[in-house]
């Protein structure tokens, strides 16, 4: 998994350098971060409350023309869902929310189209590499963590989805973005008690970034 993540970072860096050799003013590399609201859904999943977390990482924009660009990204994404909210019956003997945390390194490969100057829409496949999994009984404190070892996990290491979004880039390089990503594949491993459960990641992301 680490090799795949390093390959994704190298891909962005390599594409950026290669394009920059022909037109250094056209290619941009930036940073981004923001809030996540995530859950899982499917035919076999009831209504679950969303987990609120964050995302942060790198983004590149490689133009094909004045209006169309290729936008690869690599970023950390805190995902999962709330098992219990603190206004529900306290079955876990805690005053905090109880979160099932699934954290990923996400690699979206997006086609970006500018509708007017600054305003764009984007869409493309996204590949997620699971880096951490735990149940957190005290998400607002350092304690309460029950980490799930990869050997004991029922959740796949690789997740795939489609990302759809929009962004507005200002002349000074700052940009605002909003995005929805819906999973294409079941998150649960084959050969486990959950292999026939239809469950897919769904994430809303809102953030701020800067292109250098």
Notable characteristics:
57% strand, eight-stranded antiparallel beta barrel, mainly beta, 10% helix, 9 strands, 1 helix, Porin, 212 residues
CATH architecture: Beta Barrel
What's the helical proportion of residues? under 10%
Q: Average pLDDT across residues?
A: 86
Strand order of the largest sheet: 1-2-3-4-5-7-8-9
| Total separate domains | 1
Model regions low in confidence, pLDDT < 50 over at least 5 residues: 15-24
Number of strands: 9
Radius of gyration (CA) equals 19 Å
Roughly what fraction of the amino acids lie in strands?
over 45%
Q: Any idea of the CATH class?
A: Mainly Beta
Can you count the helices? 1
- Distance from N terminus to C terminus (CA atoms, Å) equals 29 Å
In CATH, the topology is named Porin
**Could you describe the largest sheet, including whether it forms a barrel?**
8 strands, antiparallel, barrel
**Elements, N to C (H/E):** HEEEEEEEEE
Shape, principal axes of CA atoms: elongated
Keywords: Signal
Pfam families: OMP_b-brl_2
Signal peptide: 1-20
InterPro entries: Beta-barrel_OMP_2
Describe the SSE topology.
Layout: H1 2-22, E1 28-41, E2 49-63, E3 68-84, E4 98-116, E5 119-136, E6 145-147, E7 158-169, E8 174-183, E9 200-211
Antiparallel strand pairs: 1-2, 1-9, 2-3, 3-4, 4-5, 5-6, 5-7, 7-8, 8-9
Task: Give your account of this protein's structure.
The chain has 212 residues and is mainly β. The chain contains 1 helix and 9 strands, in the order H-E-E-E-E-E-E-E-E-E. A hairpin with an 8-residue loop joins strand 5 and strand 6 (145-147). The protein starts with a helix and ends with a strand. Residues 1-20 form the signal peptide.
